[in-house]
Fold:
Amino acid sequence: MRTRVALLLLVISAPWVRSADEPLPKAEVIIDRFVEATGGKAAYQKCRTEVTTGAMEFVGKGIKGSVRSYKAEPNKTYSVTELEGVGTIEEGSDGKVAWSRSAIQGPRIKSGEEKTTSLRLATFNPDLRLREIYKTIECVGVETIDGQVCYKVVMTPQEGSPDTRYYDKKTNLLVRTSIILKSPMGEVPVESYLSDYRKEGDILVAHKLKQKALGQEFLILIDKVTWNRDLPKDRFDLPDDVKALTAQ
Amino acid sequence: MQSVTLGLTWVCFVSLITLRAAPLQPQQRFKLESFEYVWATIRDKHWDPKLGGLNWQAVHDELRPKMETSDSISQDRAVINEMIRRLGQSHVGIIPAELYNDLDSAPAAATDQSSEDGNIGIDVRVLTDSGNRAQVVVTTVDEGSAAAKLGVRPGWQILKINGKEVATLVESTTELLRNSPSRSITLLDLMLTRAILSKLSGHVGDRSQIEFLDSENKPIELEIPYRTPKGAKARFGYLPNTHVWIEQRKLAGNAGYIAFNFFLDPARVMSVFEDAVKTFNRCDGIVLDLRGNPGGIGAMAAGMAGWFIDKPEQRLGTLYLRDTNLKFVVNPRRPAYRGLLAILLDGASGSTSEILAGGLKDLKRARIFGTRSAGAALPSVIERLPNGDGFQYPLANYISEGGQALEGTGVLPDVEVAPTRQALLQGRDLALDAALSWIKAQKK
Structure:
């Protein structure tokens, strides 16, 4: 009897539901549908670089700023966040070294799982290269997110904690991600909600990212995404003070 | 897919004591919404979901009727302050909407001198005389300030500000703390200092009437104009605009000296701090003066500590949030300063000052001189309420690397040295003298 009660509680408390007669699609199929819904594989494959500009704010805290990010194949990235009252925060990867630099912390080279995660997140066109990035990708159920019925896909990387994504069953669009960011400070679960999909070139892009972490809410509003812009050759080079740290 | 990650580097915690007084103006809108917002925020976001065993629903049910019948903004604030005082913690409070006027106004209005806050250019502490009586004493006078031009000197005692006895203010503030739920006496110096400094502030262009006892104990009354405070105006979120200064100088005995009044404006302050540490790299010791510094952006503590730590993976302490823990890890900077480090603290040093000093003390990297700090070290954030007031609440508990909760305890000095009026009149700074003597002795 005790076992039956426990099972009942498990069923009641399960956050996701699906009807027994509806088999879950394979995760690869869900991701292919997302790629198709947002422009198609060919459109993505035409892209070699990405430049994104936007605004960000700490919701309800009066702290606002701007974000610029640059990405290039295969996993190069550089972003600059300018926050009022805080200053400039830079993060980047040249494909081998992941780093950050700010007025408060100075230059820092990431290592261990923090580095692995940064390099993974720097992957250009990640949805076309999931098999390289993750060792398993599995659709584990159906959940309702903000009234949208979504497939829940768990992606386990070669190293580190799994990423979880939620794809809208109806539109095939990605509406939420859950990841755990690791750094020397510790582990921070980050929930991101994506919405306001609009076309930038041939690709449909979420223009509103609402993020929740550490009990706070952060909002990023994308202003523009430009594909295949010629970037300066040294765009992803390590800054001198970061380079000096790699030599030590 | 776009990057949807949140860089930890831009997650900064504000941990600042804000005890500035402000004129109250009628503003009655959204009072119940504001009451409920504060109550629900503490219920949902406070780092301790059990609120230390406090029956939070009962507090709501007791005070909500008072809020419904209050008929002025000052009463509204009193009810909300009564609610949050039940927590018995620092870093929770209401910042009157009036303090945001310059922050919210258009740039043209912000430059209007008449609306700008000013001061007379002195710092004060409440000391006790030989008869154990409290006396408000000038501890520093800013060079070139209005007070300096009129001859005010460290060691002068303040008797009245604008016709009001300061002894009354000291008594009422002490009584307020004695009756507060926390009854944390470590907060007394901080509260008294901020309360008196707020009385010594006013609109630029106006004048204050101050009665002193001078160095010969003769009463002297001066009319001192409020001037723009020293430093540069800094803005951070919903903190009221604050003038931030940082100064550094070489002292006799081959020591460097660095002081600043807030952990704010990191782009400028961290840069000056870095230059100072590099300038003093060959000094036998550095004195970091955090007396009177009530805190600011918590992450700046770890950033500054990086200039004194050359080993990786060292940390000042740990933040305990509602659903995760974060370590205050120090990122070693190069070239790190390897000489002696003395930190000056007093009861008006709070928050980020305590995190930095307490952490470096626990790591055995610094020796602390002065008096016990305020014990007000809960990292917090500030939001705006529906009625326009600011609302500061703690987001995390902080435990220093030595396992000590600084809240309510403070950082204890290694060498306790309290200022005296006599020494100040002689032009002596006893805590600084003690730090320099230590540096000199260690060199030998």
Notes: The radius of gyration of chain A is 20 Å. Chain A touches chain B through 59 residues (CB under 8 Å). Chain A has six helices and 13 strands.
